Automatic annotation (TrEMBL), chain A:
Chain ranges passing through the membrane: 6-28, 40-64, 84-117, 124-144
Keywords: Membrane, Transmembrane, Transmembrane helix
UniProt KW Transmembrane helix keyword: yes
Superkingdom of source: Bacteria
Entry protein name: Tripartite tricarboxylate transporter TctB family protein
UniProtKB/TrEMBL annotation, chain B:
Domain of life: Bacteria
Source species of the chain: Nitrincola tibetensis
Residues annotated as domain DUF112: 21-441
Name of the protein: Tricarboxylate transporter family protein
Keyword Membrane annotated: yes
Pfam families: TctA (PF01970)
Keyword tags: Membrane, Transmembrane, Transmembrane helix
């Protein structure tokens, strides 16, 4: 946990510094105001992030030194891959959804994941892919008929 | 105080067929979600919000409240039959529920859990109605100074009490504040942190944010956990004649249920603590006060009663700060604020003045939801026991699909899908690295309100801090916030010292 605190705190420090010196001054907006400039609240938020994560980094690094734990442990690529692939999988279908309607790609999205997770029964594929897809299709048609979509 | 006709009309609305159907749907869906391990209340509400888009505001909020209550009661089923709580708040129920089910009394355990849930929920709902209205009447007299001070106090309180590290809670809150300012500045009209995207003009859209950070990220976490825990099987309900709840046995659990309800209501009314704290506190209190504490953990019905009554009492009680002050004290309350916003309603004390009928209809609907929860749980016991066997590898792909479909149906398009994806990464890291999610979400939701009140305070006072001397309530909360900050920091340092093995 100490190592997680240290590295996650460091990432938050880096992000909040980026917010304070680049993102908020450049994209935070400007203009005349009475008492509360447009960037003020965001700047306060970023300072809270910086101070809290800064304290977290200092305290966890002191604890790491005292407990003589190393700053880095061996990287387990298999573990990282197991956590990353679902994101890539969903991102792939989001990219596909730019070009194709979701009702077309839904069976592939659900069926593909069922396959990866080891499902072998064909009727489960049928139920799990067709029911939600049909539901979305009916809802979309209904919303189109009442003029919402 | 509203007239009697408002109360009458509110109850008539809540007891109409349309209302009962919507609440029934919400409680039923909530029950099913609660029963399935891996799906939790936040995921269910996040996914259900798009479904409520085309409902009337009352129907939408009643549906979501019914859903929220249903998940709390349903989570006991998987805790008892599978030893895996549907919600983390039902973890204490596993301690006695699962041993009791393993000893051949699953039906009795489920019925004790259900009755404790319903009593806890109903009593806490009545408490909410009794407390929120006077609370809101007082809050209506508050000006911008008081509201700004209370909001800052609430954020610090939630960061400290939401579990985990206070520093991480504050960092998450800071990020919520930054994201809460995105969009057009109401005073200058300047675009803030929109990066040229017109879609961000009105702020970060709440629906993609909650679906991404709560639902989609949770599915990624579940996928990781599925790899580690495959192949659990639930205890089945049998037709064993000896396995049924008798009045004499239930009577022994009643004092525990009332005590659990009181603890749950107290914990729920404090922002940030959540139902897990309530259920474990109640379980601990029941065990300590028992004459034979050794039976706890071995299938004692009082253990189930203590945990479930407190767990369910937390939900209505957590709406006290929401309806009384407009401050969401839990993730589900924060999600409700989002649903209110989508339907153009500002939740908080102003509802008492501007929409009293709506407020009382919701309260009446909550009582109806409690009673429906009893009926659904009692008669659906066998079906829900079967649902426990649905493996998570079938649920996860469908929920991922529902996350994306919910965004598309709302017309957010590709931008919305990418926002959902971005927030799912953020949510994943918040969960993995134990940064307080509730602080992040509450900070994001209350920031526009905080900014408005802060701006009014600065303009009215001419930036003179001495104005606080004339506003004792605001000054009190400012002082309390400073004391809390010092207290949380001190506690954090003490805990850190204790956790170090080599520390002197």
């Amino acid at each position: 946990m100490l190592r997680i605190n240290f590295w996650s705190g460091l990432a938050v420090v880096a992000f909040s510094v980026t917010l304070l010196i680049w993102i908020i001054p450049t994209f935070g907006g400007g203009g005349f105001s009475f008492g509360l400039p447009p960037q003020l609240i965001a700047t306060i938020g970023a300072w809270i992030m910086l101070l809290s994560s800064g304290c977290l980094v200092i305290l966890s690094s002191v604890s790491l030194v005292r407990s003589k734990e190393p700053l880095l442990s061996g990287v387990n690529f298999s573990e990282i891959w197991h956590q990353v692939w679902p994101f890539l999988y969903v991102l792939l279908f989001i990219i596909l959804a730019i070009y194709l309607p979701l009702t077309w790609i839904a069976p592939l999205l659900i069926g593909g994941l069922l396959f990866i997770l080891g499902e072998q029964r064909w009727h489960i594929y049928l139920i799990c892919t067709l029911t939600p897809t049909a539901g979305l299709y009916i809802l979309t048609v209904y919303l189109m008929r009442i003029g919402v979509v | 105080m509203p007239e009697f006709s408002v109360f009458y009309s509110a109850f008539a609305t809540a007891l109409s067929w349309e209302s009962i159907t919507v609440i029934l749907g919400g409680v039923l869906l909530g029950y099913i979600v609660g029963v399935i391990p891996g799906l939790n209340r936040a995921v269910a509400i996040a996914i259900a919000i798009p479904l409520t888009f085309y409902m009337s505001p009352y129907a939408a909020i009643s549906f979501l409240i019914g859903l929220s209550k249903g998940t709390a009661a349903g989570s006991a089923v998987s805790a008892i039959l599978l030893n895996t709580p549907g919600e983390s708040s039902s973890a204490a129920t596993c301690l006695d529920g699962y041993p009791m089910a393993r000893d051949g009394r699953p039906r009795t355990a489920l019925k004790i859990g259900l009755l404790a849930s319903v009593i806890g929920d109903l009593l806490a709902t009545l408490l909410l109605i009794a407390v929120a209205i006077p609370f809101a009447s007082v809050a209506l007299k508050f000006g911008p100074y008081e509201l700004a001070a209370i909001l800052i106090f609430a954020l610090v309180f939630i960061a400290g009490m939401a579990g985990g590290s206070f520093l991480k809670g504050m960092a998450a809150g800071g990020l919520g504040i930054v994201l809460g300012t995105v969009g057009m500045d109401p005073e200058t009209g300047a675009m803030r942190l929109t990066f040229g995207y017109m879609e961000l003009m009105e702020g970060v859209p709440i629906l993609p944010l909650v679906i991404g950070t709560l639902a989609l990220s949770e599915m990624f976490v579940q996928l990781d956990e599925y790899r580690r825990n495959k192949g659990q099987s639930a205890i089945n309900l049998t037709d064993n004649q000896n396995d049924d709840l008798k009045w004499s046995e239930f009577k022994t659990t009643l004092p525990t249920i009332f005590k659990g309800t009181a603890i749950g209501a107290f914990v729920g009314a404090l922002p940030g603590l959540g139902p897990s704290v309530g259920s474990f506190m109640s379980y601990g209190a029941a065990k300590r006060s028992a004459k034979n504490p050794d039976t706890f953990g071995k299938g004692d019905p009082r253990g189930i009663a203590a945990s479930e009554s407190a767990d369910n009492a937390v939900i209505p009680a957590s709406y006290i700060p929401l309806f009384g002050l407009g401050i969401p004290g839990s993730v589900s309350a924060a999600l409700l604020v989002g649903a209110f916003m989508i339907h153009g309603i500002t939740v908080g004390p102003l509802m008492l003045r501007e929409q009293p009928e709506m407020l009382f209809s919701l309260f009446s609907g909550m009582i109806v939801a409690s009673l429906l929860m009893l009926a659904i749980g009692w008669y659906g016991l066998r079906i829900f026991a079967k649902i426990t066997n649905i493996p998570s590898h079938m649920v996860i792909p469908i929920v991922i699909f529902l996350c994306l479909a919910g965004i598309q149906v709302q017309g957010y398009g590709t931008f919305g899908l990418l926002v959902v994806f971005g927030f799912s990464i953020l949510g994943f890291f918040l969960k993995k690295f134990d940064y307080s999610f509730v602080t992040f979400l509450v900070a994001f939701i209350v920031t526009p309100m905080l900014e408005l009140n802060l701006r009014q305070s600065i303009i009215l006072s001419g930036s003179d801090v001495a104005i606080l001397l004339d506003r004792p309530i605001a000054a009190f909360f400012v002082v309390l916030t400073v004391i809390l900050l010092v207290r949380f920091a001190w506690t954090g340092i003490q805990q850190r010292k204790k956790s170090l093995p080599n520390a002197d």
